[in-house]
Design a protein that fits this description.
The protein is α+β, with helices and mostly antiparallel strands. The chain has 6 helices and 19 strands. The chain has 2 domains: 121 residues, Probable inorganic polyphosphate/atp-NAD kinase, domain 1 (Rossmann fold), CATH 3.40.50.10330; 146 residues, Tumour Suppressor Smad4. The strands form 4 sheets. Strands 7-6-19-14-9-10 form a 6-stranded antiparallel sheet, covered by helices on one side. The protein has a 6-stranded antiparallel sheet with strand order 13-12-11-8-17-18, with no helix packed on it.
């Protein structure tokens, strides 16, 4: 079996765990392929991997999902700290989970991705996937921004707020939840939109059908010139990890991607509802 070994190059514990696992896999006759989850492009050999073992936390898994999902490579996330929502096992339980995967005893759980496109003056300048959310928000300036929203080409609302979050069901436990958005079970394909600190605007989250298309248009010129260097204090963020500067009139189109993120789930993975009770609902007995 060809197995991508995903690591965070800036996290020694991630590198150490990956090396130990790679040695075990080679001795067992498998082919580990190193995958650095940073800005480097994927190698051709990674694209042919049967599965990816990703060592880190939820943030590391987010990076892996964006990189590997276009190639239909399933991901097994191994948490090196406290158990998160996207990692399916801990480092202490990993040997058992790895044994299940190598024996074919696992299922595939699919999660929806967002396809985000940034268009400026009629030209697409950025296109990217997001597993959690796409966020349009103010940057350094302490002020609200105007964001006009269209749904399937029809005007819906112009928000006056600190920002706007468009999230998947997976992302509903992240930034959107922290500002009052709904919790949605991860198998759902629904898309949610949540304003951040709206001022004299509709303050509730909106849940859209999976095939609806949202268009967000920034209405301010956010360019800021400092010492001859142009900076932009309005940003579009993808999963809280990839950022792009925005100008007034930029349009961000967000829809559910045809590509899905695929996660390997073994018998050792905790049910999502159990994680929800422990991490968010703080219910006793968990």
């Amino acid at each position: 079996m060809r197995i991508a070994i995903g690591t965070r190059p800036d996290w020694p514990a991630s590198l150490e765990a990956a090396k130990a696992v790679s040695d075990k896999l080679r001795k067992a006759g498998h082919e580990p392929i190193q995958l650095a989850l940073d800005s480097r492009a994927l190698t051709k050999e990674i694209e042919s991997a049967d599965i990816a073992f990703v060592f880190g936390g939820d943030g590391t898994v987010l990076r892996a999902a964006r990189a590997l999902s276009p190639f239909d490579i399933p991901i097994l996330g191994i948490n090196l700290g406290r158990l998160g929502f996207l990692t399916m096992t801990t480092i202490d339980q990993f040997d058992e989970a790895m044994g299940d995967v190598l024996a074919g005893r696992f299922t595939i759980e699919e999660r929806a991705l967002l396809d985000a496109r940034l268009v400026r003056a009629g030209k697409e300048i950025v296109r990217a996937l997001a597993l959690n959310d796409v966020v349009v928000a103010r940057g350094k300036e302490v002020r609200s921004i105007n964001v006009a929203v269209r749904v399937d080409g029809e005007p819906l609302i112009v928000y006056w707020a600190d920002g706007l979050i468009v999230a998947t069901a997976t992302g509903s436990t992240a930034y959107g939840f922290s500002v009052g958005g709904p919790l949605i079970l991860p198998a759902s394909r629904a898309i949610t939109m949540v304003p951040i600190a709206p001022h004299l605007s509709f303050g509730n989250a909106v849940v859209f059908d999976p095939d609806q298309v949202l268009e967000l248009e920034t209405q301010e010129d956010a360019a800021l010139s400092l010492d001859g260097q142009e900076e932009h204090d309005l940003h579009a963020g993808l999963d809280g990890q990839e950022e792009h500067d925005l100008h007034a009139g930029d349009r961000i189109t967000v829809r559910r991607s045809e590509t899905v993120a695929r996660f390997a789930r073994t018998a050792h993975a905790r049910p999502f509802v159990e994680l929800l009770r422990e991490k968010i609902l703080k219910e006793p007995g968990t």
